[in-house]
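User: What would this chain look like folded?
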Amino acid sequence: MSHDAVTPGPRASRRAEAPKQGRKKPRERRRGLKITLGVLLVLLLAGGGTAYWMYQDLDGNIKGVDIDQALGEDRPEKLPTTGQNLLVLGSDSRAGAENKELGGGGGVSGARSDTAMVVHLPEGRSEAVAVSIPRDTLVTRPECVKDDGSRTASAERVMFNSVYSQAGPACVVKTVEKMSGVRIDHYLEIDFAGFKDLVDAMGGVDVEVEEPIKDKVSGLDLAAGTHRLDGTESLAYVRTRHGVGDGSDLGRIGLQQQFLMALLKEIKSQDLLGSPATAYRIANSATKSLTTDEGLASLTSLSEFARSMNGVDPASMETIMLPVAYDEQDPNRVVASEPQAGDLWKAIRTDGRIPESAKKSPATGG
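Assistant: Here's the prediction, encoded as structure tokens.
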């Protein structure tokens, strides 16, 4: 983004100046910027040295993973449209004292993909679809190159959320691409501490609880109605499995999708333009525990990607759970249900409309 110096003229002259063709009206620009933290931070550069330091600090927060290098050429073809597919992971990493405390500590080590969504942004970016992949889904893990350069052999009937800890984020992307035939354009991961801090930086998020939730394991106790959750409560909300449905992973996916919509709505409603300090605090929390593919691993790249999503209204985003059925050998696990899952992935690959039948899952988690 360019910030050339402009010598202000008389106020009357500026008012009389006709808008240039193709330029967005101020109200439209303002609406777009309110949901683009990266753009806001670029605008702060006009403030001088301190703002530049903040930009550099935030830019350095983001960790990048070279997904393309790790996957090579054995991948689905890229869409012939401008549609994009983003794999979003919520990692239950126990790395660091804060993550260990939030994760329950104990003897648990390593990390797993606690939440996984494939977000499809069609050409035109007016609508979006988020497909949740249940963590208990049995999948075939392809042969992968790990972060240290070693290889992990292909394996059948492994739990989807174990792929992350066994072979790293690039292998999660490769597993999703193999099971779906969908080319993943970008990767985004946030861990326990980053999620909590982001919610706290925004002052909480409002959620509507349809039925009481009482989870003795996490301590989450919510009556039916509207609640404003802080970071710790929000983390318990998206991770609870004992307080909803049949206690399986499937029951909480609806809560995760609901919270995603509430989070996007909250970000959009924040008066970020009116409060640079708030914008910085939220952006710092959002980037500090963020890992992306190399293509998004900078504020400039994130800003450009976010600008392409300005036309997406969170209220219009469709959330779907990958259609799954209980595994015949192990009822505590699920497998992709056909032909529903195949129809869902085909619609995303072709930027087409998703059939209603592909939105229904034989296994629902109660």
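The first strand starts at residue 63 and ends at 65. If you want, I can go into more detail on any region.
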